[in-house]
UniProtKB/TrEMBL annotation:
Keywords: Cell membrane, Membrane, Protein transport, Translocation, Transmembrane, Transmembrane helix, Transport. The lineage of its organism: Bacteria, Pseudomonadati, Pseudomonadota, Gammaproteobacteria, Moraxellales. It is a multi-pass membrane protein. The Tat system comprises two distinct complexes: a TatABC complex, containing multiple copies of TatA, TatB and TatC subunits, and a separate TatA complex, containing only TatA subunits. Substrates initially bind to the TatABC complex, which probably triggers association of the separate TatA complex to form the active translocon. The keyword Transport applies. The chain crosses the membrane at residues 31-49, 87-106, 118-145, 165-192, 204-220. This is Sec-independent protein translocase protein TatC. It comes from Acinetobacter pollinis.
């Protein structure tokens, strides 16, 4: 009778020592776990989909005039909009588990030094992504809605379609969630040796201009939205640069 690593309780060999089909088998197991967890959480949250949409629409409903309401221009919108939002919320809540499965897959191929760097970066990326969404919901979204509704003509009663509002919010959340990953991206570029902190400092003025240029296209066409994205992008770049300096200093001291 032949034995396997599972039957003898022996650990799996490092990923780089395994044939490609073994990689695919292990990857399929992790993907299966992710899909089961996502579907399970989605079904658990589905009965509360309407309440979740009410929570999302609260910033808009707080800004609408007394007799204005949200509308549904499509027969299926009253079902599909909360459904889509429920899927997005499930995916966001399951993100730590997804990263844990990714970490479990790549960890055997990493050296101890790489593991010490990779795991904190993955945890930090999730925290920053959540922070970006929270910043967009609590700070940016109310300010933008107040501006757009306050400048609307008196003869126009704002009545936003629920699907349009959902699309607008999800795009806003993704933009700010990705934007808040700038410190992680900066650190990865420094760790990979693609850039150095010295070169980033020398190009700081161009990077700041680039932040405003990107914000101009990534946000609605108003100055408030652009500033509320560009300034955090700049500050987050400075945070990544600060930790990059610390890593370079630590690497230099370890070599000396």
């Amino acid at each position: 009778m032949t034995t396997t690593p599972e039957s003898t309780n022996q650990p799996l060999p490092p990923l780089e020592e395994m044939p490609i089909h073994k990689h695919l088998v292990i990857l399929r197991k992790h993907l299966f776990k992710i899909m089961i967890a996502l579907i399970g959480l989605f079904l658990c949250l589905l009965p509360f989909a309407n309440q979740t949409y009410q929570l999302l629409s609260e910033p808009l409903r707080a800004q609408l005039p007394m007799h204005s309401t949200m509308i549904a221009t499509d027969v299926t919108a009253t079902f599909l909009a909360p459904f889509k939002l429920n899927l997005f919320v499930s995916l966001m809540l399951i993100m730590p588990f997804i990263l844990h499965q990714i970490w479990a897959f790549v960890r055997p191929a990493l050296h101890d030094k790489e593991q010490n760097i990779t795991f904190p970066l993955m945890v930090g990326s999730v925290g920053l992504f959540y922070s970006g969404i929270a910043f967009a919901y609590f700070i940016v979204l109310p300010s933008m809605l107040h501006f757009f509704i306050s400048v609307s003509p008196e003869s126009v009663a704002p009545m936003t379609d629920i699907n349009s509002y959902l699309t607008f919010c999800l795009k806003l959340f993704l933009v700010f969630g990705i934007t808040f990953e700038i410190p992680i991206i900066t650190l990865l570029l420094i760790l990979a040796g693609i850039v150095s902190t010295k070169s980033l400092i020398e190009k700081r003025r161009f990077i700041i201009v680039g932040c405003f240029f990107v914000a101009m296209f990534a946000t609605p066409p108003d100055a408030i939205s652009m500033i509320m994205l560009a300034i955090p992008m700049w500050l987050l770049f400075e945070v990544g640069l600060f930790f990059g300096k610390m890593l370079e200093k630590k690497h230099t001291s370890s070599l000396s």
